[in-house]
Write a structure and sequence with these properties.
The protein has 197 residues and is an alpha/beta fold. The protein is built from eight helices and five strands. It has a single domain, classed as Rossmann fold, CATH 3.40.50.300. Strands 2-3-1-4-5 form a five-stranded parallel sheet.
Length: 197
Amino acid sequence: MKIISVTGCIGSGKSTLCEALSQELDAPIIREEFSLNPYLSIYYSNRETYALANQLWFLMKRYEQITVGLFNKNFKYAIQDQTLAAFGCIFPEFFYQRGYLTKEEFSTLQTLYSALKNRLPAYDELTICLEPPITALLKRVSQRGREYEKSIDSSYLSGLTSQYKHFYENRRENLITFDSDRMSAEEMTEKIRKEYL
């Protein structure tokens, strides 16, 4: 089984691309399930207090989804909306740099991520990182109208985008990047299918 992981900043178009890939490849989606996270909305109103709980929930939920929902099942492909690394490395590093996590909290997330990653069986993964411009991210976040996301500004999105680029700059193997503001989900899906699968 090959897992196609779609990652990128908030509002980059991950879910839309996941849906297009799922339809094209007849593959299940591991969804982010943000609506089930009891800490997400209150994180945005009190980031220093709830950043750790928010990331712990996402990290543990994704590990559960991968282990229970994928392995030992006969899928040729599976689509992952956001990566374990995003929940365990990219967001925690970003939160730590902005002062939302203490050094000890950041270390706890790193340790847990490493432990969970090491417990997973080896699998073939292709990572798609979406990198639209900040103006497009702001527009998309505003258009989807989630009340708790109203506090997200260009500085937040710019910092998070930079964190994604930093994380992947030395991890180029099995990585594809797209400007999802210049290509539609259908165009990206066609390119992925023809050139990388």
